[in-house]
# Entry
Amino acid sequence: MAAEPKMETQYIAGAVVGHLTADSINGTDSGLHSIASVSQIGAIVPVTLFSSEDTVLNPSGIINTIQKFRTTDDVFSDYFLTGHVLVQSAELVTREQVFREFIGTISGGSDQWLVQRVDLVAYDSVKSSLPSGPYFLEGPLVRKAYRLYGDSLESFQAAVLPAEDGGDYSFVELHKPIRKNNGAWIQSIAVPSRCYSKPTKDKPLSGVRVSVKDNYALAGLKTGNQNKAFFATYEPEQESAEYVKRLIDLGAVIVGKTKLSSFASSEKPCDWWEFQCPFNARGDGQLNPGQSTTGGATAAGGYDWLDISIGSDTFGSVREPAAQNAVYGIRFSTDVAVPMGGVYPSSPVFDVIGILGRDLAAFSTFAKSTVNSVIRTYDKWPQRILYPTDFFPSGEKAQQQFWDGFVTVLEDFLGVKKESISIEQTWNDEPPAAAAGRDYKTFTKYLAANPFYYDGYHEYEYFRADHLAKFGTKAYVSPHMQWKWDIGANLSKSDYEQSKKDIVLFRKWFDTKIMGKSSGSGTDAILVLPVGPGAPVYRDQFVVPTPRLGLDALNLAAALALPHAVFPIGQVPYDSPKSGRKEYLPIAGSIAGASGSDLVLIDLVHRALMKAVWPTTIKAGRTAFDDDRTLDMSVTAQVAMLGVVGSEDLTDTKLVQQQKN
# Structure
């Protein structure tokens, strides 16, 4: 989407976090005032609070703190630098000290700030202090400050705030539409000041802003599953999903629920009949945003005020959108990595949580902090790089060259060369006896498809019955969803059970013959897999659905219960028929490992990219990287990394910019 002028910054007051003492200092008479006179009844006043815990309470210390706010907090602005100041300090015990330090003009460099009134903030019962930062004052009550951001990409289904009276895991929906510069109204998302949060050992995710896919239960809100009939059938959730509770315990801030393909299916943008499909911020704004964890990926790729999106992955629902929106993404190991309680299913055989983000270091910290204890780091790296010819070479020419460059980076870091393998040929040469003579294509044709479609239909039998009982009508679902359900309805239970048995057999065979666990490195190899399109695919292209038969590069990891991580590595310029100008298509690489090697995959690629001086952070918005060279390296280094040997390749792919003689 084309860039729009910035909207006027808007704020709201959040939960009560403190209250004033009886003492207030006024610059006119420096007398004692009653609490009732601090602000008019019902009035909410923007203020800045300074605490002796993190600020030197003198003019230079205050100015330094303000400068820090301006560079580290997107909520703080001069809007909060009114003539009214809050102070919390055990050291300022008399009104005279407060008057001497604060009342009057505070100067520092080009900053001058006239303070006319100071109020003292009381300590709570355990003497814990409030962090310095922006707040709102309502009478004697101190409230958190939230900034409102417009959801211009239409990524969110609901904005949320913590419920003040429902416990730590409960929420209320925020209804605060804001007007865009073109006059249209859009939903707003509220985010708290980053000044309030400082990561600790117990709360390593303190202040991390997280969006949640709308197939997760959030206490106090309805779960919609992106279907109006489902939303209407059920009451608000009583409990939040287990993983959400874990995030909150670790300090994360849940800001809203993001849209998904209905029932976490594979609806393309033209299949969204009941809701507007979110927009991909990359390129011309009209690229396909990917399926299922659609809103989570578009929000992560488009909004710099959001840190992490969490979703679910069945057949690629986190990984494909991650590649298309140029964000880091991982499908965790099925069944062992994270708790799934409170996440509505697509197919329990394959379903698992996944996360998306733009900063690989923060992404790694988030993953390490939230996975189960059985998922750990290791002292050694795997010493094999598997390059499956079942899927490579693949894609457009430029995309393949980026993938080759990605493999070169991994080879250089591990000190080994890739091994070309064929999973199909290995199976055909050494099949398990229990396969009863079935070759690879025959064995895998319905291996993953049967559970995927069978579960997709039968997991929601209760919903169809509940809706009929409540409304007396059949529940409406989109044509794509009905098509998927019809396939599942026609599958037999015996075929379903046989496929589940075959999946167990396939996993054991793969673990023995291709890639398995390692006590020293978590996985004895990494498997490189293609991901994402190599040419623009637009949201207005209607795609006739076809069943997902066999094993492709996305559902392979699902069938094998493997962790599979996606890493944006570049972008390719293209001439857009939508915008009429040159745009940039993101390119991503990916690797999978044995079950339980989730953190190994992230750490390995993170360190390999740093060694190669490749980017480990992604920009939000139209472009993921700074320019169409993609990687901040010299032309010579890029040619070496990407294996480009001829000037024709450089011209065709535009991977590097040639200097004119």
